Amino acid sequence: MKxxxxxxxxxxxxxxxxxxxxxxxxxxxxxVLVGIHTRGIPLARRLAAALAEAEGPVPVGELDIALxxxxxxxxxxxxxxxxxxxxxxDDRVVILVDDVLYTGRSVRAALDCLTDLGRxxxxxxxxxxxxxxxxxxxxxxxxxxxxxxxxxxxVAVHLAEVDxxxxxxxxxxx
Amino acid sequence: xxxxxxxxxxxxxxDLEGLLDDADGFVDVLxxxxxxxxxxxxxxxxxxxxxxxxxxxxxxxxxxxxxxADTMTFAPGTSSLSKGESLKDTxxxxxxxxxxxxxxxxxxxxxxxRAAEWLSIPVVNGGDGAHQHPxxxxxDALTIRRRFGRLDGLQIAIVGDIRHSRVARSDLLAFAxxxxxxxxxxxRTLLPVNTDGWPVRVSSSLDEVLxxxxxxxxxxxxxxxxxxxxxxxxxxYTARFGMTRERRARLKPGAVVMHPGPMNRGVEIADEVADDxxxxxxxxxxxxxxxxxxxxFRLLGGEADV
Lengths: 174, 306
What we know:
The structure holds two protein chains of two kinds.
Chain A: E1 2-5, H1 7-25, E2 31-36, H2 40-54, E3 60-63, E4 93-101, H3 105-117, E5 122-130, E6 142-146, E7 154-158, H4 160-163, E8 167-171
Chain B: H1 13-30, E1 44-49, H2 55-66, E2 70-74, H3 87-96, E3 101-106, H4 111-118, E4 123-128, H5 134-148, E5 155-159, H6 166-177, E6 181-185, E7 200-203, H7 206-209, E8 215-218, H8 234-241, H9 245-250, E9 256-258, H10 271-274, H11 281-300
Parallel strand pairs in B: 1-2, 1-3, 3-4, 5-6, 5-8, 6-7, 8-9
Helix pairs in contact in B: 1-5, 1-11, 2-11, 5-6, 5-11
């Protein structure tokens, strides 16, 4: 397993994305960060902490997209996690947060889920790693690091809250 | 991996807790402004209830629809059963019609088990005779876990017609597996001949155990299964085993009263107790939909054959 980003790189990427969010939205008013299970949630919390330092508190929600997947038939039994939004998302700017952007199917599922929960003014997407190989017309607004990969490789994002350490790793596939 | 849900005894503690965890998520889904998710789009859930039911069948239908599954309802009264079609031919027909899952209630013990042997689709036991009613046990366990945060160490009494009750047989297994201490409270005549090997204590005095209880689970006096004939009179039943206002007052603070419904008001439960905010009867109904969503999602949502 090869390390592509270490803990300091991850921290820098989070800080930079936070600044880009503030720049593009001209501040943090009306923002809601919504993390996609599992690792999108700690990332959203870190972004919120960085935004709070620069501007002020931003609410953080979490989204479990298990019930919206288009490949349920092909997966081992999926567990249902919690979906929580601390504030109504109607007319706010929702920033979806995930660790890796790959096929785009998780983001599609997350967008469908958001639609059932309210009508945001705008939805933006922030990811720590974009590894390419999109299967849907979806792109990220904020990217920590573009990592061109082969679809046979496996990209693993580790976050201290879940994995005990920070870092991005690539594993060769079979 | 679960293929059917027939009997609580087929589940491990981890299976049980996993289903309850998923059900917690579905409670949130049911509270959304649009309480519908696409998880089971394109699947068809068929209910076949050969015995009367209000809440169980409707609860499964609501659960299926909230998950975006389609539903078909088999109504024995107006069907070819009256022309003598066998149970096997009936369920095979329902499968051939395009059912992806069958929920079945039948007066004969083991009927759902037999159906599961005949069919290639998952079967959920919605009640078989006096044997099992696993989704009732799950919804009761969920209701208790959400109220107390756990079942471990809770004192739970199941009161009444244990002998004829599939609810009691399912619930006591689930409660005990999750760490509760279960006492069956009933007159001798309403206990099974043999309770050896059941993880329970047995008492014939509700008044004795009352002050120690966290949960009083009242069973319905089942007149249709002969439950009334083994007792001198309903008023004598009420005097010894009914949850009256006086008994309610002797429960410890925080204790709750549950009942699977339909209630015989004035027999096993007094009006004032049934309508008390601490009675969880309607909460049980709400949790029933969430738990059945968890069961349908578990049986239909994953890979077909792991």
